[in-house]
Protein: Sugar ABC transporter substrate-binding protein
Organism: Trinickia terrae
Amino acid sequence: MKRTFRPTLKALCGAALACTALGASAAQTITIAMLNNPDMIELKKLSPAFEQANPDIKLNWVVLEENVLRQRATTDITTNSGQFDVMMIGTYEAPQWGKRGWLAPMANLPADYDLNDVVKTARDGLSYNGTLYALPFYVESSMTYYRKDLFAAKGLKMPDQPTYTQIAEFADKLNDKANGVYGICLRGKAGWGENMAYSTTVVNTFGGRWFDEGWHAQLTSPEWKKAITFYVDLLKKDGPPGASSNGFNENLTLMSSGKCAMWIDATVAAGMLYNKQQSQVADKIGFAPAPIEVTPNGSHWLWSWALAIPKSSKQPDSAKKFITWATSKGYIEMVAKDEGWASVPPGTRESTYARPEYQQAAPFASFVLKAIQTADPNHPTAKPVPYTGVQFVGVPEFQSFGTVVGQSIAGAIAGQMTVDQALAAGQATANRAVQQAGYQK
């Protein structure tokens, strides 16, 4: 009688080790384009918990500096190359890319995700025509940080609502370069989301605007000249050396290591500055609203770093599973256990702000939520404008011309050109961009 050979599973695989490899190869890999800010580094650190819970999904991280991330994500989405399954984008990109059909809608989320718990301002900023195209990882406005001990030593008191005139006076009195403490730290690094995000809020509150209602650039207006001259002179006089190379991360390092008397930047930094593991001045930090000058309009920004799925993703279901995990209530609890409640991703969920643990650990909590809720992208300037966005102009061309203008203004900080030269160059760049796009009337 002929025997039928029935190979064992071990024989089929060749060896138990090969079986393991075969099983592993069946897992889907999703590639994530991620920003190199501290909150995102924490996400990568905690992500093995997601992989353990989802053994059929492997995460491939591409962690990039802000300007590089924007370039890579934009190139990938516009060429439909499908290099990334998950992209970290913001309130500038999400509505525009959603409108063009480049992003998968964030629909059919799990019931326990509790989308209604997500702050409405955040949802609205990431939507187009009522459809949500990204889930917020954190949401921020901008605010003023200052060293309470240095203010006390000089007999100074931060007002409940500082003006830029007062900020400049404080910076002069607090500047102590001989001891490595600078009166103020501000973004100077070129980029539409770096120095232009901050300096646009200065222009706004000084009464300026990027364009008039007919899309004519306003960069050579008296308001722009006054605002940018103020900003450049303040950094030259009372800022750290090499300020034209400093963005959010560089200034965060300076402030948390005790080198800055004041810093005006994103509210998300509060959790890092109050974290004793990350900040040498955690017990010395005070906070106030972003300064104003002639108008409160546009003095503090609204931004969300969010996670989105490009339509070109080859693994959209796995990508959505990861995004919902990374922006869930459960993930916030994980960060609280690992880093403390002060350091959880802010601005996204009403339930975070309702937690007594968060209110106790984060004295800035209610202040930050109010700043987020009062920032108004639809009325960012004193005079009417044809665009939305506080610290950016919500049109596709801004990514390009905003960065070019930022390069000119960084050049003025570095002393390579005058403010008038920088603004004249910026005026020509901005006008050319909107003329070519057919906006000007």
